[in-house]
Amino acid sequence: MSEQVRVPQRVAPIQLTGDNSPRTRLARRFMRMLGAALLWRTTVKVTYHGIQNVPRQGPTILLFNHLSQLDPPLVGGMITFRDPTPIGKEELLHNPLTAWMIHFWQAIPIKRGEMDLQAMRRALYVLEHTNDILLIAPEGHRCKALSEPKEGFVMLAAKTNAQMVVAGISGTQHFRRNLLRLRRTHVTINYSRPIRLKRKVTRQEYRAVADEVMYYLAAHIAEPELRGLYSDLSKATMNYIEVIE
Fold first, then answer.
1. CB burial class (10 A; 0-12, 13-18, 19+) of residue 87?
2. Contacts (Cβ under 8 Å, ≥6 apart) of 102
């Protein structure tokens, strides 16, 4: 008797996003209004440059330096013509204050310190099947200044041919102190012109690509002391990446 051939079942979409879920679109609209009321209209004053550089369509990854918990809503919130889908550490699900935000916004939690395949599949789904921007802190955690990044964003860009925009943010590191003093925090965000990979890259080249992107990010951070390991911009190269004209 011949062996029965097993036909693999079609995998259902990993998650609903703002593109295909009315409930998510409504929740995101409400959270934008809440963020505007609590943040950039009251406790922070944002000066941003280059917002017109953010593409209005196509697979897009937005990378930012991570100084405080305010960075994702500020960097993504300034973009009103597309929704960002942030990737954040799984530990945020254990905090009631942030867990509901992740749930209603449909952000992507990721397990740090390991290759989280489910999070990567969700990220690929966002890039390939929605018009959301994937929002990533390349270092994977908050840092006082730029440090070595994870290489996952390079893999995502390589697999989807996504364009990348970097957003250099400064000022949010003073938010908590200013809030205690009832002072408004001045924040600056610089959005870059989009970049892309020049060619297909191998797994062994991911680190070199990541470093080039980090230097590009460093160049868009207003305060030089926040550039960390990538402070010496004379070492920046563009062997693997190019600016999209």
1. buried
2. 88, 92, 93, 109
**For residue 112, pLDDT beyond 80:** no
Q: Which amino acid is at 66?
A: H
CATH topology assigned to domain 22-243: Glycerol-3-phosphate (1)-acyltransferase (3.40.1130)
Q: Which two tokens stand for residue 120?
A: 């990567």
Determine the residue type at 44: V
CB atoms within 10 A of CB 116: 18
What's the confidence (pLDDT) of residue 8?
41
Out of 73-82, 104-113, 185-194, which region has the weakest mean confidence (pLDDT)?
A: 104-113
pLDDT recorded at residue 20: 60
Express each pLDDT in 12-65 by its tens digit.
444 555 556 778 888 888 888 888 887 777 899 999 999 999 999 999 999 999
pLDDT digits (tens, 9 = 90+) for 211-226: 999 999 999 999 999 9
Quote the tokens at residue 74: 């500020």
The number of residues making up the chain comes to 245
The pTM for the full model equals 0.89
Cα–Cα–Cα angle for 218, 221, 227, nearest 5°? 50
